[in-house]
Amino acid sequence: MNQDYIIPNEWSIIEEGYNDSRIKSSESLFSIGNGAMGQRANFEEKYSGETFQGSYIAGVYYPDKTRVGWWKNGYPEYFAKVLNAPNWIGINVFVNDIQLDLFTCKKVVDFRRELNMKEGWLSRSFKATLINDITVKVETKRFLSIDLDEVGAIEYNVTPISGDVEITFQPYLDSGIHNEDSNWDDQFWNTTNVTENSSQAFIEAHTMKTNFHTCTFMESKLFINGKEQNSIPKTESSETKVSFYYPAHVKANETYTIHKFGGYVVDRNHDTNQLVTAAKNTLKLAVDLGFSNLLDQQKQAWANIWEMADITIDGDVKAQQGIRFNIMQLNHTYLGKDARLNIGPKGFTGEKYGGSTYWDTEAYCLPFYMATKNQEVAKSLLTYRYNQLDKAIENAESLGFTNGAALYPMVTMNGEECHNEWEITFEEIHRNGAIAFAIFNYYRFTNDYSYIPEKGLEVLIGIARFWHQRVNFSEDKQKYVMLGVTGPNEYENNINNNWYTNYIAKWCIDYALENIEKVKEEYASDFKRIVEKVNISEAELSSWRKVAENMYFPYSEKHEVFLQQDGFLDKDLVTVENLDKSQRPINQKWSWDRILRSPYIKQADVLQGFYFFEDHFSTEELEKHFDFYEPFTVHESSLSPCVHSIQAAKLGRMEQAYTFYLRTSRLDLDDYNKEVEEGLHITSMAGTWMSIVEGFGGMRIQEDKLSFTPQIPSQWEGYSFKVNFRNQVLKVIVNQGKTHFEVDGNKELQIIVNGEKVTISPNNLVTV
Amino acid sequence: MNQDYIIPNEWSIIEEGYNDSRIKSSESLFSIGNGAMGQRANFEEKYSGETFQGSYIAGVYYPDKTRVGWWKNGYPEYFAKVLNAPNWIGINVFVNDIQLDLFTCKKVVDFRRELNMKEGWLSRSFKATLINDITVKVETKRFLSIDLDEVGAIEYNVTPISGDVEITFQPYLDSGIHNEDSNWDDQFWNTTNVTENSSQAFIEAHTMKTNFHTCTFMESKLFINGKEQNSIPKTESSETKVSFYYPAHVKANETYTIHKFGGYVVDRNHDTNQLVTAAKNTLKLAVDLGFSNLLDQQKQAWANIWEMADITIDGDVKAQQGIRFNIMQLNHTYLGKDARLNIGPKGFTGEKYGGSTYWDTEAYCLPFYMATKNQEVAKSLLTYRYNQLDKAIENAESLGFTNGAALYPMVTMNGEECHNEWEITFEEIHRNGAIAFAIFNYYRFTNDYSYIPEKGLEVLIGIARFWHQRVNFSEDKQKYVMLGVTGPNEYENNINNNWYTNYIAKWCIDYALENIEKVKEEYASDFKRIVEKVNISEAELSSWRKVAENMYFPYSEKHEVFLQQDGFLDKDLVTVENLDKSQRPINQKWSWDRILRSPYIKQADVLQGFYFFEDHFSTEELEKHFDFYEPFTVHESSLSPCVHSIQAAKLGRMEQAYTFYLRTSRLDLDDYNKEVEEGLHITSMAGTWMSIVEGFGGMRIQEDKLSFTPQIPSQWEGYSFKVNFRNQVLKVIVNQGKTHFEVDGNKELQIIVNGEKVTISPNNLVTV
């Protein structure tokens, strides 16, 4: 199902021609969102073919009862699921009493769908001949407002072509929806109230168990050839649905238009008892503006996003389309306005992976948001974990840890663990390291130390305590070892001394110790508060030190590489190149045991450590490890190619770097994994951004400055990106042979280019 | 819930006093069976309290759709489940229209339950005062006929004590039953026909999916004070139930009796279309004999079983009761008449563990059946696996193996794998070794080589091929290694080079090679047939040899022991003795990851290898390994204590051996694991037998002879057992200080006692 139907275009995702076999894929690819809600590109009108309905509200989830074959002690009771929320986009369309339904139409021509990335809207147009032989032209436009983020707006135009007809729009709200991914076919929503007045309707419903109260709402305006129609609609309502009927006689080539405004208000943001009032207020704002003004605001909001986040690529329209698609979808998913929210692996584009937050956020997404938004956004992502520290401590306690040791969950919505495979839930503990690393990374990039005494240090202490307890002393090795873990390479489970995990564990302890020292000296009152809270002693710290200083790292003298784990060299070390292509992807072709004992690596593992801690190793060491591990890497995780692309670029292997880049940037658009219909790979999209900025651009922080070693794929004429570095915006334009830098504002910026210090004066293009 | 309500008695399991909190435990403990069917000790009359209903037909199962959290390639589609079969024991009892139900009675006194092990029947008696204040005395007796193994019989007596009453017996059949353990609440039975005539009733039903057709049947006889009553009953039937009403006026102190005959005929043994006819034939045989004669037959059948299988223990009634309970339950479960059947871990006493056959059969049960039955029974157990060889080859193919490699399933009913935890299903592959070992063990004990050229060699070849492909050559170690396995100690998963697995793998290859050689030389026509079938070449055999000769065995020079697996010495080696008691059992107190990285051993692992291959090692080596591993062993498997008991005895540590013995022999009677209500641990009961015969008695095969090194726990006055060795029955009587041997028949038998050859002449007690 590799797709080639998306038409290359610099600023738009475009599909032409109606094909019911790709409806679900397109529903994913044309998804829209505004950080507070998002939805798949489901049709407004009825569609009786195969479809995957999804409209999601940020932070609203359902704790689906865990399903396992054999229960193990410590498994969580539930897996939080993003859940399909009540439908507000629905508009049934009847033409002379026959319902418009593309799946049953006699003919559909000129079908075109466009996701306009520049302006932030989704449109669709087609000519359909219904079973009553009437042909109508339909044009729709839809967007979720960035500014009024509880509201979406739809313009739906129907123009009869073959003669005068009676057209009825039936806009509706429907809370009688279901989730694709439900473990026990539970009911997820309880609808408590369905109300309407002459122009507005409201459905109040709350999620079962979690009791998120919501009000879904709508209001519509009708026009014929642009002239507003003021009829009082007939209404119809049931326990979970309410609809209005707007019939009209429409002459041939006249256009009947409905503007539908709808969306959700949630008790996370409003008083539970005032949801209908809140909905009315929101509707008033939107309706008073009208579709056209709201759309203008939308274009401006997206212009602002692109002003900072855009990456241009010259000479390769597919690459340009790919990178913008990634940047747009990241902004659909998370805008950083709300520290209670985070970045789900599928954003608002599907249900898979259910829970919202993985280590993806810290390892892959943070750099993107740090560089393309103001630094409060990145701080929000850190604060999210700080706010869940107590739950991380409880989680560790449930696994037998004590004394405030914190283990952050593998997957979570509210800080509680959701995942339930023992080899992941209990053993893929390196995630804890990424959360500490993000604190380090934030400070390195922003130079804002305030977060650490205020919040970060408590997190670092909890994490250090976990690692300190998680190792044990091996009498045999006379070192501290870490047994029974799963590293970033999930194709090995329950291994001993995963180098990456051991390394980041030691680093976490060292970094916590360093910051305890610094906070003690420079933030005495914070230090006093923290010590009182976490009750830490010199004896404990010295015990940490002993572990950090005596951590075991498996190493091969022969290969001069750190070993991914103790047993790696016992494997049958046949490289991927020599593996029969018919055997791939191994995660579909091989039984799990065979994968586990193979040398094949799902995503960067040792190399992930070399990515995080690049400064700790020489380029020669990186090269040795890259040449040892990459040949065994099957890149069957969407998070794999970006790290390898960055490292290949660092090693000056631009062809290889470009190959990896292609794989990550159009992963969904070209449906590499044949699963795009389930939703998009949102978190790996941030990896694509890193591939350009850190990979090709070679951006690093060195000596407290931005540093670049710009390179460019031979296939491109040029590319550019911007970075918000400590409140100065630097634009970087790389062409074949030279690089230009420009800094906004009125302050000069010193940077490092290819190892040389360069001063960029404001508003002055500097070419290197 | 440690039980102390079972009254010590040499030949009976007795419970006195009615207590509704122990109903489910007693339903397990008083279970009965005849090898072809079995049932929990559910009451015949209605019981509205908590109960676990179970009546099971050997070989009739349901493939319950697998339930997992995260599907892995290679998982089986279903887990075969023993399933609760239609109820034929039910007899509702009404006294003046009030239904007898012990849970609602005003008073229950003199409640007594007895499972008479000597004679093979279950009885119950009590006086109950119903809510209408009428008091009746009830006495019941029930057995499943060994001789007519499709039939069970019940005698149910009611004697009114407080005055004349109207009593109605309502014997019924009911196929509207359910299973406790169902993954998806599927319907398991489809009832197709409910028929009755004036005295008999039949329910035809088949299992869903597997389509085992059965006919459940009943016929009753009524008596007052022993005088047969010939009334025509009123009948009542529905889609899944049929019952007869036998009302009678019964005077005070008169006894109203029903003899109910019932059971199952199955299309495994009869023509599908002739099941009702078969049921009628069976009923005729039983009813013509009558309850009393059938019971006499039963007593004789059990006398025959005990004649061969009994173990006596003098001076310790609880030990005596315990060992007989084990022997009886093994005989309830499997009598060896049908090579399609095998020994389920819970026999016919519960649903847990679902599938029928585990490696328990070969590793633990075979020795018991070899020594206490004629050798055809043991051969049936081997043939069971031979008949499933094709499925084992398919199973291996589904995991990527080729060329006729066979992997026997972890759990099976029909040869297909049922289990679905990757760390067990795909990795606990040592089970394959036990199946080969059983062939060796059978030949060693019986001297019947014929099985190997006829059937066994094909099994050995399939297994050797599996091991040959399952290892890989480690460049690093320059040896063949086996990565990613779970050994007998299921508290370690996905480990590398489990010594036990590597050792038995090498042994399997060697043993297959040895037998290929022998069959080639001595059974030329069999050899030709086999070679044509399995297509084996000298080149393949030489490749096997290379693996066997270069297998890697982890070893510690320092401790002078083979290591359970590569990483064992890195563990935090705190012995069980030094583990806080509040932390045990660890399988209830610890999360799974913590168990995995601990040094604690669930059941014999390295020591299992020393048990199987005792001759390969010196006693000093055994002692070193025992002293190294036993202190880390938590014995949280019912299969653990017996092996350790045997080895402790071998090392002359009789106190320790006795402690282990106690733990195994009354595991269920004293409910060590607080779970007896789920059913009995049938397969470990064979381990109990081994603890006495191989442990205390020290029985081995040496130089082709039975050999003994008799010891006796200081707590006992004496014990005795019998062994059927190559069609000669040897009785061994061990007292404090001396041992007596006696051989049946007219042939002398040479044995070895404490290393010395001793000749036992027939029918002559020889004292050593």
From TrEMBL, chains A, B:
<feature type="domain" description="Glycoside hydrolase family 65 central catalytic">
    <location>
        <begin position="324"/>
        <end position="690"/>
    </location>
</feature>
<dbReference type="InterPro" id="IPR005195">
    <property type="entry name" value="Glyco_hydro_65_M"/>
</dbReference>
<dbReference type="InterPro" id="IPR005194">
    <property type="entry name" value="Glyco_hydro_65_C"/>
</dbReference>
<dbReference type="Pfam" id="PF03633">
    <property type="entry name" value="Glyco_hydro_65C"/>
</dbReference>
<dbReference type="InterPro" id="IPR017045">
    <property type="entry name" value="Malt_Pase/Glycosyl_Hdrlase"/>
</dbReference>
<keyword id="KW-0328">Glycosyltransferase</keyword>
<dbReference type="InterPro" id="IPR011013">
    <property type="entry name" value="Gal_mutarotase_sf_dom"/>
</dbReference>
<keyword id="KW-0808">Transferase</keyword>
<dbReference type="GO" id="GO:0050082">
    <property type="term" value="F:maltose phosphorylase activity"/>
</dbReference>
<dbReference type="InterPro" id="IPR008928">
    <property type="entry name" value="6-hairpin_glycosidase_sf"/>
</dbReference>
<dbReference type="InterPro" id="IPR012341">
    <property type="entry name" value="6hp_glycosidase-like_sf"/>
</dbReference>
<dbReference type="InterPro" id="IPR005196">
    <property type="entry name" value="Glyco_hydro_65_N"/>
</dbReference>
<protein>
    <submittedName>
        <fullName>Maltose phosphorylase</fullName>
        <ecNumber>2.4.1.8</ecNumber>
    </submittedName>
</protein>
<dbReference type="InterPro" id="IPR037018">
    <property type="entry name" value="GH65_N"/>
</dbReference>
<feature type="domain" description="Glycoside hydrolase family 65 C-terminal">
    <location>
        <begin position="699"/>
        <end position="759"/>
    </location>
</feature>
<comment type="similarity">
    <text>Belongs to the glycosyl hydrolase 65 family.</text>
</comment>
<feature type="domain" description="Glycoside hydrolase family 65 N-terminal">
    <location>
        <begin position="15"/>
        <end position="267"/>
    </location>
</feature>
<dbReference type="Pfam" id="PF03632">
    <property type="entry name" value="Glyco_hydro_65m"/>
</dbReference>
<dbReference type="Pfam" id="PF03636">
    <property type="entry name" value="Glyco_hydro_65N"/>
</dbReference>
